[in-house]
Each structure stands twice: as structure tokens, then as C-alpha cells.
Amino acid sequence: MNQHLQSAGDDPLVIAGKPYRSRLLTGTGKFRDLEQTREATEAAGAEIVTVAIRRTNIGQDPNEPNLLDVLPPDRYTLLPNTAGCYTAAEAVRTCRLARELLDGHALVKLEVLGDQKTLFPDVVQTLDAAEQLVADGFQVMVYTSDDPILARRLEEIGCVAVMPLAAPIGSGLGIQNRYNLLEIVENAKVPIIVDAGVGTASDASIAMELGCDGVLMNTAIAGARDPVLMARAMKLAVQAGRDAFRAGRIPRKRYASASSPLDGLVG
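Above: the chain sequence. Below: its structure as C-alpha cells.
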């Protein structure tokens, strides 16, 4: 194989020491039913899937459909999240419940919201929860604002991935803060994964072209007219964006330069 045409397996996303081929992480909420959840997850090629512990049955209720029946833990890395939590105490309690339900599972996605309308993170509560969870042995992937200083602080606490928003959750506005994201990416020593705001495939590509290590999304797929087709589009977009970042784009110039210059022509 041409050394430049490496497969995804040669360029893995590494989270808490574990390599993943896919850089697209997907949510499991908002789909029509569990079957559509399964189909979209497979089409996306996702290996890490988020689970809202406070909203999703993963065994708490034996009389309800169980997400683990369609997305088994031996095939997917489950990422329990603290969606719907508004205090550090709630978030920590939810992560501990997830660990109990999933037999000691330590990898979690922390999000502590500060406002019901915008769903922006409460960064003070997020820092508090992150410190508690890391001290308690959790591997914390953390949803946060696009503040480079805050991202650095969360990394220093010991979070295994920092997940800045690109725009408000569920907004579909795309990448609104590319210079902040660049600052975060360029100074990070842990994976930076865009979380929230992606609306379509081009948004995912832009995030990857900026150098982000991955993209997490739910609404952009589940809310599409055809979620399974959109999942496939997102998979390809993330792959293309990553390849473009690694290849290195040409510089932007005010004027074009001829692709076939006149210099050196015979005669």
C-alpha cells in the first residue's frame, strides 16, 4: 500500500489509552426507535456511543426495551453521559450510577448545564465535577465551552478528552468559533473532540480540517430527514476532513497563480 494512503487503523483516535478506528462518536437519543438507533450507528461507523443515563434504559427497567440489546457493549464502547444535570453533585451521582450499572465502567462523558434554553455548560460546576470524578478513578471526557484557558485547566485536572462546543447543542449552526478551536487544538495534549453545533457533513469536515481529533453528534443525525443516510454522510465527512488536515491545505492567497506558468517554456 502507498505509504500516503493509510487506513483509519494506521491513524487511530486514542482515548484513555485505547485506540479507535472511527473519529465519529454518536449519540443514541432522539431516534424513532431502537432499530433506527442501531441502523444509524452502524452507518456512521461509530465505535463510541453516548448514553444518557437519566433518559435511557440500560438495565434499570427490565420491563422496557434495553439499548444494550441493539448496541452491545462487546461491540461498542459505551460512553455514559450526564445529560440533564445542572449541578456537580447531580453529575457525580449519575456517573457513579453508570459505573454500577455497567460493572465498573470508568469512561464517562461529563456535562453540567447552566441554562435550560441555550444548554451552555456551567463551567464552575463542570470544573468541580471533573475534579471529583478524576479523583474517584473515572476517565472523564468533558463537554465545555470554547474557552482555551478552561480547556487547558480541564486537561490539567486529568480529563482524558476535552469536548468544546462548536455552537449551542442542537442548533445545527456549524462551526462558529474556529479560531478558539484552533487555539485549543494547538495547545492540547489530549484529544479535542467537537461536541455540539454540527448540522451537516461540511460542518464535520471543517472541524476535522481544523485539527480536531474527532466529532461527537446526535441531533444532526437523528433529526435529519433520513438519519441513516446522514450518518453515512457524516462518516465520510469526518474521514475526508481528517485526511485533508493531514495532507495540509494550500495557502490562501489574494490572487490566483497559473497552474501552468509561462516561465521556462521552450521558444
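DSSP finds eight helices and ten strands in the chain.
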